[in-house]
Amino acid sequence: MAQVDGDRLNALLGKMLGDLGGAYSVPTVRIGFRLGLFETLHREGAASAGELAQRTGLSERYLREWALAQAANGYLAYEESSDRFSLTPEQAMFFVVKESPFYLEGAFDLVAAMIEGEAKVEAAFRNGGGVAWGDSAGCLFCAVGAFFRPSYVNNIVQSWLPALDGVLPRLQAGIHVADVGCGVGFSTLLMAKAFPNSRFTGYDFHAPSIEQANVHARSHGLAERVRFETAAAKALPDEGFELVTMFDCLHDMGDPRGAAAHIRSRLRPGGTWMIVEPIASDQPGRNVASPVGRLYYNASTMICVPTSLSQEVGEALGAQAGEARLRDCLNGAGFAHVRRATEGPFNMVLEARP
């Protein structure tokens, strides 16, 4: 056995304590979201555990331990002299303000869903098979939708669509748009609200997601202009779209090349396909050195790769496929013009044209 370096060992120990502290926080933070504890402190101001118990009708002893845990996490501020807890404006951006790009309720739920699906993914390690979307956890698709929503709310209309060449005026004038892999419909409905002259059809192969998407469309009063249908990306029943969008799902597909070829056949001449994918370098070494790459590789192990391997072909691009592999997929399907229209800390936006 090689000699252990004490400095490296202690550095790794410090990292492990931080990582495990974060992991231990997942259930307590989710309880805080579900019981409205962060919201109550933000709305009504600083409180002791007793005051928080009066406001919520919950157990003071549990609330005190919970609040101290969140203070230790750095998720609440704690003033020892008054024994009171509060949220800073910055903490509220993560735990209360749902339209904030940093709101994380969905992220914590996604972690819990990955843990719930652990046994099924472990079995797939042994047999080389996949785990179908929606089968690994009770409501993985709900958690994924909630996880992506803050990013979509703050980017789709504001920066991603405007980065496409000549698309914004057409959306404003009125075109038919297909949102492929729409999930529970957040992305589709955001676009529909922003562009009332255009019509939108959302497609997803997961029927329970489409059921929720239709409920959302009705609740937002958009059912007349927005339609959701259960359909795989390689079997869209309609054609003649001037714009096709695909948010964070091409890499999950079993046959992304077949899907790309089919989407090309669904576009009108001069149409555009916008593909939003997780940001990644083409060099794995750079991805593993990034905190974003760390999140994506772990999520990809538990969700993206098993989902792809459960489908025909099972290419399993993974959430860190990188632009070069994505371009190869698009070029091979007949999209000769592919460019990175814009990017952010978590996503890249590719624009593809035949």
- Share in helix: 40-55%
Structural category:
alpha/beta
Number of strands: 9
- Our measurement of the CA-to-CA distance between the termini, rounded to an integer number of angstroms, reads 57 Å
Number of helices: 15
Roughly how many Å is the radius of gyration? 22 Å
List the helices and strands in order: HHHHEEHHHHHEHEHEEHEHHHEE
How would a textbook summarize the main sheet?
A: 7 strands, mixed
Principal-axis shape equals globular
Structure description:
The structure is a single chain. It contains 15 helices and nine strands. Helix 1 packs across helix 4, helix 6 packs antiparallel against helix 8 (140-160) and helix 8 runs parallel beside helix 10 (186-194). The chain has helices at 6-34, 37-44, 49-56, 60-73, 89-95, 105-116, 118-127, 140-160, 167-173, 186-194, 207-219, 256-266, 284-288, 291-309, 323-332; strands at 77-79, 84-86, 176-180, 199-204, 226-230, 241-247, 267-278, 337-343, 347-353. The protein is globular and about 70 Å long. The chain has 354 residues and is α/β, with parallel strands linked by helices. The longest helix is centred in the first third of the chain and has 29 residues, at 6-34. A hairpin with a 3-residue loop joins strand 8 (337-343) and strand 9 (347-353). The model has no long low-confidence stretch (mean pLDDT 96). The protein has a seven-stranded mixed β-sheet with strand order 5-4-3-6-7-9-8, with helices on both faces. The chain is 52% helix and 16% strand.
